[in-house]
Task: inverse folding
């Protein structure tokens, strides 16, 4: 692991984008997230690491209220984006999800054309007034997902016909197209080969310019490579949260140290 | 890791050659071969039964598609048909079929005489056994439509009686005729003589496919066409009602309903409804639609409503199965870009589930098309549908029969000529069912996730 590079990386002191306080999540009787407090900064890549079943994906799905779709899930506590409580009764999860985009573990493009995949979000949110604007959004989104050059000649080809890495970048383009402010990524590279992973990681680093990116990953190397801040979850607890360099070189908690050195997990 | 510390010692030193299988392996192989044989035997039995079924249906039913006709020149005698001689349609209409029967008998008799056939049947009345009872009505209809024909000699192709038809189709045998009061051996001799002359001929019978049912004594005139219209209107009702209701119910239950005791109860009940005997739906229809709501009896509308109740569980179950088969990642993807639940369902889930829904619907319709029992109770069986409906309203509300009900009706009549028509009706029904199932397969292939 290239520790030196991590230490040298500059961490911008950004304002807080997402503030979570005392978040508890229950799946039926299971207490999946126990009292998590975390402040996620704007224009930063924040990585959630931890062993399987530690609740990092669950917490991620709280941020855009995807847990609402699970009947038995119950969320308590306070999550604020730009100071607004997203669990307020007046908040429409549909609007929230347009603001907080999500990329899933397995590439899941719609079984439609590449163009339709990217244009779907803008279309349902009415972001484009006409076809030309929509074309622009599609092009820009595909460019920002570093996919434009590969697919510009076959926008009408099915999105599911792309390779795994391309599909995942298509999903990123689709998420970016709705102009979100936060981008949640749930193990976006776990189904990809090393080359595609490298491409997506590079992309994540570029997306940091405009978005607050939260990424869940099983790969500690990946967390070290792409993130500025890292949160370590264990058994539903947020054990440690801090600058990535510090977490990986000088963790405060013994559990964090055990995990990143491979003794637990 | 404790296993590694105990040294592994082979229990027996006996080494086995890989080229000569031991007893155990051979036994296993034999069991496998046996199992494969059972499977092949099962499939072979199935195919054999299917072939027997199809050949027997085709052998018994193809006769219904052919009919024996007699071509004769009928002299429309003004002395009998228009006694007043004023060609007034009202007066002509007063002459019943009894007035026409002697003319037709005379015409057949003349044809026999002209051909110079030697026959012991010396009176024109003796020709009665050759001619269908519906021939007089056929001629009468032509005359009433055009009274100016009276006085002329017109060529008609009239139906032969069902005995003559049966004789040419080997259904009526000479040895049986002795006990038959409808026809004698002399008549059969006469038919044998007339066939080479082309006066009596067996041709394809379009009337069987398009025509209406006929009374017990006129098997030769019965057709399944009107019953087919009845079935068509019933299917229309079933499709229009059960598809939207079924799909809406399934979407709600599958995508929106909370999972609690009530939805569990509904789910179990839908599954149970699919197994309820169809006659129960029939008596329900009788009680609710006819006795309580006073809808007309024997109407395809009521039949369609009853069959809708019967088809709904099938459609709901297959629709839910195909909605369930859509990967949840598609829903996540749609929700993730900010689609509402309804948008996710209608833009993404439903199109992917559509082939399954269509297949389920067509299978449900095919099931309803062949259903007879509920129709017994709402009066669509035993009714002789003689007029084709002349519009959608009359098609839905006028008494009618349905294909399976018509087949059942024919099968229980005494004349073997009706029995043949029952088989013919089954061929038509099967053609419909096979084409519906084929359509289901084609739709499934065509619209299944293309990429």
Result:
């Amino acid at each position: 692991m290239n520790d030196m590079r991590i230490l040298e990386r500059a961490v911008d002191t950004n304002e807080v984008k997402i503030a979570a306080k005392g978040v508890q999540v229950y799946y039926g009787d299971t207490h999946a997230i126990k009292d998590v407090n975390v402040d996620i900064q704007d224009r930063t890549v924040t990585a959630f690491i931890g062993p399987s079943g530690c609740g990092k994906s669950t917490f991620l799905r709280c941020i855009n209220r995807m847990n609402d779709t699970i009947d038995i899930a119950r969320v308590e506590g306070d999550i604020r984006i730009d100071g607004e409580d997203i669990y307020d009764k007046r908040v429409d999860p549909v609007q929230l999800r347009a603001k907080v985009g999500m990329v899933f573990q397995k590439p899941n493009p719609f079984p439609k054309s590449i163009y339709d995949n990217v244009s779907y979000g803008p279309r349902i949110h009415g972001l484009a007034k006409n076809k030309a604007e929509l074309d622009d959004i599609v092009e820009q989104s595909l460019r920002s997902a570093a996919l434009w050059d590969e697919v510009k000649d076959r926008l009408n080809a099915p999105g599911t016909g792309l390779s795994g890495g391309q599909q995942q970048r298509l999903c990123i383009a689709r998420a970016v197209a709705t102009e979100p402010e936060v981008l949640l990524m749930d193990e976006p590279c776990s189904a990809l080969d090393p080359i595609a992973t490298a491409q997506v990681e590079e992309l994540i680093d570029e997306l940091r310019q405009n978005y607050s990116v939260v990424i869940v990953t099983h790969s500690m190397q990946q967390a070290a490579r792409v993130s500025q801040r890292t949160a370590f979850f264990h058994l539903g607890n947020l054990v440690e949260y801090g600058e990535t360099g510090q977490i990986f070189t000088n963790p405060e908690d013994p559990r964090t140290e055990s995990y990143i050195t491979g003794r637990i997990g | 890791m404790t296993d590694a510390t105990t040294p592994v010692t082979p229990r027996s030193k006996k080494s086995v050659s890989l080229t000569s299988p031991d007893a155990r392996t051979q036994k296993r192989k034999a069991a496998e071969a046996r199992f494969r044989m059972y499977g092949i035997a099962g499939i072979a039995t199935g195919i054999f039964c299917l072939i027997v079924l199809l050949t027997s249906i085709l052998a018994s039913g193809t006769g219904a598609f052919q009919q024996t006709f007699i071509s004769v020149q009928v002299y429309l005698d003004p002395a009998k048909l228009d006694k007043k001689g004023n060609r007034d349609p009202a007066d002509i209409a007063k002459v019943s079929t009894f007035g026409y029967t002697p003319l037709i008998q005379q015409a057949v008799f003349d044809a026999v005489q002209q051909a110079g056939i030697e026959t012991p049947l010396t009176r024109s009345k003796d020709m009665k056994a050759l001619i269908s009872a519906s021939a007089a009505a056929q001629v009468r209809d032509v005359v009433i439509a055009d009274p100016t024909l009276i006085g002329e000699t017109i060529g008609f192709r009239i139906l032969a009686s069902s005995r003559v038809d049966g004789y040419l189709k080997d259904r009526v045998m000479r040895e049986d005729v002795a006990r038959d009061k409808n026809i004698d051996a002399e008549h059969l001799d006469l038919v044998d003589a007339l066939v080479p002359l082309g006066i009596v001929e067996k041709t394809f019978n379009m009337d069987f496919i398009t025509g209406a049912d006929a009374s017990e004594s006129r098997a030769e005139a019965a057709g399944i066409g009107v019953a087919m219209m009845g079935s068509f209107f019933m299917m229309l009702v079933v499709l229009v009602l059960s598809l939207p209701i079924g799909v809406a119910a399934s979407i709600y239950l599958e995508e929106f309903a909370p999972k609690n005791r009530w939805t569990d109860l509904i789910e179990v009940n839908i599954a149970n409804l699919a197994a309820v005997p169809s006659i129960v739906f029939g008596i329900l229809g009788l009680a609710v639609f006819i006795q309580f709501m006073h809808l007309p009896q024997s109407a395809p509308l009521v039949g369609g409503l009853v069959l809708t109740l019967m088809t709904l569980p099938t459609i709901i179950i297959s629709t839910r199965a195909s909605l369930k088969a859509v990967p949840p990642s598609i829903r996540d993807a749609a929700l993730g870009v900010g689609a509402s639940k309804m948008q996710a369902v209608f833009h993404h889930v439903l199109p992917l589930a559509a082939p399954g829904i269509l297949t389920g619907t067509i299978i449900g319709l095919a099931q309803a098309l062949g259903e007879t029992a509920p129709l017994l109770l709402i009066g669509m069986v035993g009714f002789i549908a003689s007029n084709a409906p002349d519009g959608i309203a009359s098609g839905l509300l006028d008494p009618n029969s349905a294909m399976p009900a018509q087949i059942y009706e024919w099968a229980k009549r005494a004349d073997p000529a009706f029995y043949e028509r029952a088989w013919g009706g089954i061929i038509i029904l099967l053609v419909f069912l096979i084409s519906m199932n084929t359509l289901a397969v084609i739709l499934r292939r065509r619209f299944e996730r293309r990429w």
Observations:
- The interface with chain B takes residues 64, 66, 69, 71, 94-99, 101-104, 106, 108-111, 120-121, 124-125, 158, 160-161, 171, 174-175, 177-178 of chain A (CB under 8 Å).
- Chain A has a mean pLDDT of 87.
- Strands of chain A lie at 16-27, 30-41, 45-49, 73-81, 84-85, 100-103, 182-186, 212-216, 229-234, 237-243.
- The longest helix of chain A spans residues 131-144.
